[in-house]
Amino acid sequence: MRTRDMRRDHAIHPLDGFEHLPFSLSVSRRSGHRVVRIGGELDMVTRSRVRRACVDGLDNVVEVEMEEMSFMDCCGYGALVAARLALQERGGSLTLRHQVGQPAELLAMLRLLELGS
């Protein structure tokens, strides 16, 4: 939230101001499986679109191309986990490809936390 939005008399919707953030999503097929390409930010606002792109349709094998992602928060990560679980329930899989920048750092940190358990 920006400082100028914190005025008491200013009513704010929780998602106001987020519609301008960069985000792109495309779905294609390669070698008999679904490829979901995400660009920009995977977060609370975009998570449901990404999850649906991964699980909708008949494809059980999904690759998520992340090279154009600039940011991912815990909601975005949760969407990927939910998609993976849904695909695994029907005998499929979800693979993350080409992680870079902050999303790659988040995934590495989560792996470290998992190893420490």
Account of the 3D structure:
With 117 residues, the protein is an alpha/beta fold. Strands 1-2-3-4 form a 4-stranded mixed sheet. Strand 2, helix 1 and strand 3 form a beta-alpha-beta unit. Helices cover 35% and strands 30% of the residues. It contains 3 helices and 4 strands.
Keywords:
117 residues; alpha/beta; 4-stranded mixed beta sheet; 3 helices
What is this structure's SSE topology?
Elements: E1 23-30, E2 33-42, H1 47-55, E3 61-72, H2 74-89, E4 93-97, H3 101-116
Parallel strand pairs: 2-3, 3-4
Antiparallel strand pairs: 1-2
Helix pairs in contact: 1-2
Low-confidence stretches at least 5 residues in length (pLDDT < 50)? 1-15
Radius of gyration: 16 Å
How many E-type strands? 4
- How much helix, percentage-wise, in residues? 25-40%
Structural class estimated from helices and strands:
alpha/beta
How many alpha or pi helices? Answer: 3
Distance between the termini: 34 Å
- The best one-word shape is globular
Q: Main sheet?
A: 4 strands, mixed
Strand content: 25-35%
Average pLDDT over all residues: 85
SSE series = EEHEHEH
Main β-sheet, spatial strand arrangement = 1-2-3-4
Question: Care to give the gist of this entry?
Answer:
This protein is α/β, with parallel strands linked by helices. It contains three helices and four strands.
